[in-house]
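Chain X:
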Amino acid sequence: MSDTEFDLVVVGGGPGGYVCAIRAAQLGMRVACVERRPALGGTCLNIGCIPSKALLHSSHLFARAQHDFVGHGIRIGALELDLAALMKRKDKVVADLTKGIAFLFDKYGVTRFEGHGRITAPGRVRLAAAGEEGRELTARHLVIATGSEAASLPGIAIDEERVVSSTGALSLPEVPRHLLVVGAGYIGLELGTVWRRLGAEVTVVEFLDRVTPGMDREIGRQMQRILTRQGISFRLGTRVEAVTEKGEGLEVTLAPAEGGDPETLEADRVLVAVGRRPHTAELGLETVGIAVDDQGRIPVDDDCRTAVEGVWAIGDVVRGPMLAHKAMEEGHAVAERLAGQKPHVNYEVIPGVVYTEPEAAGVGATEQELKERGIAYRVGKFPFSANSRARCTGTRDGFVKILADAATDRVLGAHIIGPEAGTLVAEIAVAMEFGAASEDIARTCHAHPTLEEAVKEAAWAVFDRPVHV
């Protein structure tokens, strides 16, 4: 093969794309990856999941030092926030991880091309980058893994200075006096939490009547109560009509979602966090006969094949939740399918996590979904206030809830709000993958004292009584 001929070309170097490229190379394929950013890792690693989690952890430590250390018998002097150092640490975490992916590309022989890739025909991608204009790569298979971008609201211009998307909210030069967050999904709540901990007044405005709309409603209600105690204000059932400059600040016009008189709030920063949209523009999809759906997504079958032979699509550009780990699973599976293997992705068992304090996590069906499907189920719940490890660490808010089929006891879903919820939900995801019953989880020995015992006790609560409540 020449230096432009490959078995596989992956367009996009985010979580789905780089995993697909590396796995295919591990399986003996000659692989290229085209990524427009200078650093690999996509939105998640550069301006999404990773920098936000770095800021969440740093701000959590700052808040604990402010409010919790005294109760542990730890007395310190006056706290001082060094925002520049906090941001520098976040940037280093990102840089180290992006370098790690570049190292893995070198290790497994993935050829990386920097620049925009445009599909000109099945199996052909033309590069647009300095020094590469017009260069065309050819391959037996193409995988589209270009991810997503922040959605906006009509009439509200995002300048990444005063009106910001999640990208701008990760790098504010100072702590806002008042941050108004538009959207009560996981991005809005996580970034609102960061800046609230660091001293900002935070107001979250949500069009719907609840926070975390995609999660179990009971989890959302508890999340709102806890974040309200932490000082975040919520305006639910409210729409944002306009954001206008007013001196050094901003004036935000709000109105009831169902109609009514508008009102105004003043803020010095507005974060627009109303979701994300697939990044499918300027890819040349029309040249190969691929038409996106009404949400801008590329239609694929269960194996991520498009309607065009040899062209695949994964991650945020296709159906399903816009989650990095979902994209990774699809990238891994597509690479193995190209190698003749028969992997699967179980879309019924993809966890979702909100990394606030406490965390919230869910996997499988919610109660609302089971009711809509007419499935009879039982509920088992256990509060962290009755868990010994949570008592020891002072993280007693929240609960574990497990939903099981009323007839077979098979676990259908689980929803957790509490300490390390994102970690705890993995045990239930594994159990669901193997078709476990709640009794299987309950009768599995869990170490004591651990947070995981709350999962065990919730499982007992499905079909019997837990011991510790």
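Chain Y:
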Amino acid sequence: MTKIIMISDSHGNRRKLENLINASNFDYIFFLGDGLSDLENLNNYNIKKVSGNCDFFSSEAITRYENLEGFKIMLTHGHDFKSKFTKSLMLENAKNNYCDIVCSGHTHKQGQEFIDGVLFINPGAFKNGQYGVLTLEKNSKPNVELFTLDSNK
């Protein structure tokens, strides 16, 4: 079983991000762009990251693919796929690359849905306290939990 914390759009909320990561039990962090500099003090973790439209001068890829527990996962911020307007371009890319799951950010809208057999997950904007946890186990349905931190933390 593999547990993944999904975070996007932290936009400078470094302390809140570090507090969540340090208090959590997980195998991977998927960071989906817009706040890569917030990860600077988190070198001891297994972080899979992509660059967002606000990650100026970043050398990180805007899309990457991971294989975990028998699932192929596409990670992207989403801006390059016009995700604020449509999921069709991400779906096309996911299908062309045989992906089961797409994890994206950019819209600041938390949610999950299946489209044509592909699971789309957006953990929301971490700057608003939103994040997600994806648990994968081979030959089982992916489990997605979406959370919002208490604003006092």
